[in-house]
Amino acid sequence: MDLKNLKSVFIIAEIGQNHQGDIVKAKEMILEASRAGVDCVKFQKSCLEAKFTRNALNRPYNSPHSFGSTYGEHKRFLEFTIEQFKELKDYAESCGLVFSASAMDIVSFDELKQLDLQFIKIGSGDTNNIPYMRHIAKQNVPLIVSTGMQTEDTITKVYNILNDSSANFALLHCISSYPTKVEDTKLNYISRYRKLYPNISVGYSGHEIGYECSCLAILMGAKILERHFTLDKNQKGSDHCLSLNPKELRTLVDKVRLIERNPNVIQLSSSVMSNDLLNSITKLNLFESPMGFITKTYQPNIDDIPRSIFPCELMCKHKLGKSLIYTRDLKKGQHLVESDIGVKVSEPNGIPAEFYDDVIGKVLMRDVFYDDPVMECDTMDNSM
């Protein structure tokens, strides 16, 4: 798949783990997504030991959405094997759909690569995972990368890693808040990304309730649209409430294709004004009360403000953001080398993964142990 030269908006139904760990239900969801008219269905693949530290897996998970007493038990219940992914891929393709998955760690990426997918998704939680991004940049696999809970410095660093490797990739604007309030969607960043990274496609991965913001994203130039999908919003699981049901998904697909059939209403410049959006929405009768949505979502001059980690994303970053961890037991006084440092979701959080290069070469000030998070107080500069 040539992600840099998409002919039309590529619409992804993110099934994720809304299948409840049931492959029969997963196939039912694929069929319904096909009927809704999407281009692609996407799942999630994790090797739990590669993604989480032991403490993160063993932490109690007391939630009405839990499928186990610990977070590890919960996640394991929802995981499909790579053989089941192959079965789902075959079924999706028989329904005329592209099949893909988010690879939540290097082990999962290398497994999914064997399925010869048209692209592999990198979720927001791994966009700051610098050694992972360097690994996948060399794999000659099309990549769609979400940018939730990341700073613009990190996003640009990842863009440079992929672009310098001549990777075939796209970036998605995303807010890592579940659900995202309409006023927190910050859709203007689609315009900013298009200006900063003009040689690639920019898209939108939305976690808000409803389809209206997704229509605005397309009017702002998004060429890829990803939305969570469910058969029943009342099912157990934290993503169902913000997912689109089959009827809503069909409506969204119809609205997107309507916009595409009327290219004269699409603002293709790098910056979009609120009255342009209002005129386009009104002309196509996309949804009711457009002024209310534009007032909440359009933020003047945001195109000049670098992307930061927003307050609404901090809960997700604390729970699922990646930290630097130790890959083996090490003694005080040792100099850290690349093989000593890994990246996982840790409990507690450690130094964020984007600072991987900064800790290499530093000297340990205490004994440390396998799977422990790297903390600021652990090291000192070699020059000291």
Please provide a written account of the structure:
- The chain is an alpha/beta fold.
- It is 35% helix and 15% strand.
- The protein has helices at residues 23-36, 48-51, 54-58, 71-78, 82-94, 106-113, 130-137, 152-164, 188-196, 212-219, 246-261, 274-284, 290-297, 314-320, 356-359; strands at 10-16, 40-45, 98-103, 120-122, 143-146, 169-174, 201-206, 224-228, 322-326, 341-345, 363-364, 379-380.
- The longest helix is centred in the middle third of the chain and has 16 residues, at 246-261.
- The chain starts with 9 loop residues before the first strand and ends with a strand.
Overall mean pLDDT = 94
Instruction: Kindly state the number of beta strands.
Output: 12
DSSP summary: helix tally: 15
As a whole number of angstroms, the C-alpha radius of gyration is 21 Å
The N- and C-terminal alpha carbons lie at a distance of 50 Å
Oligomer status: single chain
Low-confidence stretches: none
Main sheet properties: 8 strands, parallel
What is the beta-strand fraction? Answer: 5-15%
Major sheet strand order = 3-2-1-8-7-6-5-4
Label the structural class: alpha/beta
Secondary-structure element series: EHEHHHHEHEHEHEHEHEHHHHEEHEE
User: How much helical structure, as a percent, in the residues?
Assistant: 25-40%
Shape: globular
